[in-house]
Amino acid sequence: MKIHLTSVFVDDQARAEHFYTEILGFVKKHDVPLGEEARWLTVVAPDDPDGTELLLEPAGHPAVKPYRDALVKDGIPLAQFAVPDVEAEYERLQALGVRFTQEPLAMGPVTTAVFDDTCGNLIQIAAQPR
């Protein structure tokens, strides 16, 4: 068994598509219309096009808002992405205007940072030591 697909709820799929592809650097894999407003919109890592897909899922379900609001209020990331170098990625993303809620922080053998994805979520980036 392996993880094939996971999702993040987003307030606006067009804004999420821009942020996750143009800012974070993921590549769009699927973009299938689902009715008049929603899309089955997934992205993947550019160096792993057949790897785990991230679904940019509309946040329309009534349980989503209180759940995400509570996570953001408490500073808890909804998802974590692996990067080779947290400090370098922090600098790159900051230069693109990304707002961080936690600067790079070494926690034992792992370094993390947390940013706002502009779509209602906090996302953590993390790197293991080399």
What does this protein structure show overall?
The chain is built from three helices and eight strands; from the N terminus they run βαβββαβαβββ. It has helices spanning 13-23, 64-73, 86-95, and strands at 5-10, 27-34, 38-44, 53-58, 79-82, 100-107, 110-116, 122-127. Strands 1-4-3-2 form a four-stranded mixed β-sheet, with helices on one face. Strands 5-8-7-6 form a four-stranded mixed β-sheet. The two termini are 28 Å apart. The protein is α/β, with parallel strands linked by helices and 130 residues long.
Distance between the termini: 28 Å
Strands side by side in the biggest sheet: 1-4-3-2
What string, H for helix and E for strand, traces the elements in order?
A: EHEEEHEHEEE
Number of strands: 8
Roughly what fraction of the amino acids lie in strands? 35-45%
Largest sheet: 4 strands, mixed
Give a summary of the structure in a few sentences.
The protein is α/β, with parallel strands linked by helices and 130 residues long. It has three helices and eight strands, in the order βαβββαβαβββ.
How are the SSEs ordered, and which strands pair?
Layout: E1 5-10, H1 13-23, E2 27-34, E3 38-44, E4 53-58, H2 64-73, E5 79-82, H3 86-95, E6 100-107, E7 110-116, E8 122-127
Parallel strand pairs: 1-4, 5-8
Antiparallel strand pairs: 2-3, 3-4, 6-7, 7-8
Short descriptors:
alpha/beta; 130 residues; globular
